[in-house]
Amino acid sequence: MTGWCRLDRRTLGVTAVLLAGFAVSAGTPIVIGAGGTVLLWLVPAAVLLVGAGVLADYVRWRHTRFRCTAERLELEFAFVAHTRKSLPRERIRSADLTANPLHRAFGVAVLTIGTGQHERLTLAPLARADAEALRTELLHRSPGSQDGPLATLDPRWIRYAPLSFVAPALGLAAFGGLFKVADWFGAGGGLLKWLLNLFGELPFAASVLLLLVLALVAGVAGAAGLFTEMWWHHRLDREPGGTLRVRRGLLTTRSVTLEERRLRGVELVEPLGARLAGAARVDAIATGMKRDDDKTESKTLLPVAPRAVAADVAARIVGEPVADVRLVPHPTAARGRRLRWALLAALTPVLVLLVLGALLTGVLLVPAAVFAAVALPVAVLLALDAYRGLGHGTRGRYLVVRAGSVRRSTAVLARDGVLGWTVKQSVFQRRRGLATFTATTAAGAGAYSIRDADAVEGLAFAAAAVPGVLEPFASVPAEASRT
After folding, report:
1. Which ranges carry the YdbS-like PH domain (predicted)?
2. Is position 450 within any domain?
3. For residue 354, what pLDDT is reported?
4. Which DSSP symbol is given to 176?
5. Which of 32, 51, 100, 434 lies 20 to 30 Å from 259, alpha-carbon distance?
6. 192 inside domain
7. Which residues, in sequence order, are CB contacts of 387 under 8 Å at separation 6+?
């Protein structure tokens, strides 16, 4: 493909259907609320909207062209203004495909090509076959040849979807949306009365509690549905030439490519609910990820799955077993710090309620007591769990760092990807012989911290884990450096 080519003309149909759907969804509440007479001006307005949108998309399609030469990929738009973007082929690191339900219905897809830095080109849309062929050409892949899948979705993993804060959030959002729509038609109060009357003569508090249970059930169903839409047909492949490819999606299909030479490790992430169920997900620690694109789903190589499966996939990606790494525990002083911070966080709202109750009304003393009875034990349990989660160690050429309770993370970071160490020691840490050692890197989050480690042991560990970084700035015992 060396000559100039156009985008797929079916983009006009996609635009027309999309705008028509928007016009119908926006106009339906207006017709219901104002009556059928508004159709006299609403239909012409909808036709004008669709026509203008299709015309604008026609101009974009008619005056946009691209070509792929042996040296560069070029995209040009020449209408009133003339713009040309190009990427050197040797710098291309990813070629990702996305197709929403409309794109799939029309047989097209969006191809996004990136260099791993801040440069990217988007060809929207191309015929699905053409997009796949161009992706293969740009990444120098042989069509049909693969090293095989590293992981595929097991439908039983959907059971982990509700074990997160997404479920209650979706449930409350669903009820909020329902009341919002009812309020458009002045029926918000009536809807609330109708819902409460469903429970007969139950006390008001019991009715509210049952409504919350219904919201939670709706949230669980929503979380399962969202997981299914995002991760159905998930497949993680290692392709010839050194790339990882993630394909997933039920309605909107996505194909994300990650060049392995950009990979600096992986992160096993265990949100509290998933961890209690023995599950974890695997995220990539890679260079060249833009912050605005560094969302969970874009860097996730494996969705929440049984921890044994996640550990196996992580080991196959990095080439080192990571499940049985023996981590160095942290001093008991670190446990005390977590307990104090957790109790402070739990007691602050209690004290506020107590002060307001003493100054304003004694009614606030009841929620203060209830909050204290619930929050204090939870805070202590989370603090103890966070302490048990602390640990650091090495495995082959990788540095392993674990921390967290609500979101426990085990980062497996390539030692040659560590650019330096940042050592922090507060006054309180210094009194207890603790310090925080942060490994800085150009990949992933950019920094991975060993929190509240023994200051002497941590310094020796950091010097041994990444030789040559700390020696010019600190005196480390020779015998420690050799461990």
Report:
1. 61-137, 395-454
2. no
3. 92
4. H
5. 100
6. no
7. 330, 334, 335, 338
Helix, strand, or coil here: 249?
coil
Residue 7's nearest CA partner among 147, 150, 103, 145 is: 103
Q: How many CB atoms lie within 10 A of CB 124?
A: 18
Last residue of a domain, one of 80, 111, 138: 138
- Token pair of 41 as six digits: 């001006």
CA distance 135 to 243: 12
Residue 305 has pLDDT above 60, yes or no: yes
Nearest to 238 by CA among 284, 298, 269, 270: 284
Average pLDDT over residues 433-445: 94
CATH number at residue 80: 2.30.29
Long-range contacts of 12-17 (CB under 8 A, 24+ apart): 12/54, 12/57, 12/58, 12/61, 13/106, 14/102, 14/103, 14/106, 14/108, 14/125, 15/53, 15/54, 15/57, 16/50, 16/53, 16/54, 17/102
Residues found in the chain? 483
CA 109/CA 130 separation, integer angstroms:
9
pTM tops 0.70, yes or no: yes
Total number of domains constituting the chain: 2
Decide: 318 and 343 in contact? Cβ < 8 Å: no
CB atoms within 10 A of CB 6: 13
Question: What is the extent of the structural domain holding 61?
Answer: 5-138
Token pair 């909050």 is found at 371
Instruction: Single out the residue in 106, 138, 170 at which a domain terminates.
Output: 138
The verdict on residue 311 lying in a domain is no
Name the phi and psi angles at 172, rounded to 5: -65, -35
Give the pLDDT score at 172. 82
Give a yes or no: residue 321 inside a domain.
no
Tens of pLDDT, residues 59-110: 999 999 999 998 999 999 998 889 999 999 888 888 899 999 999 999 999 9
Q: How confident is the model at residue 144 (pLDDT cuts 50, 70, 90)?
A: very low
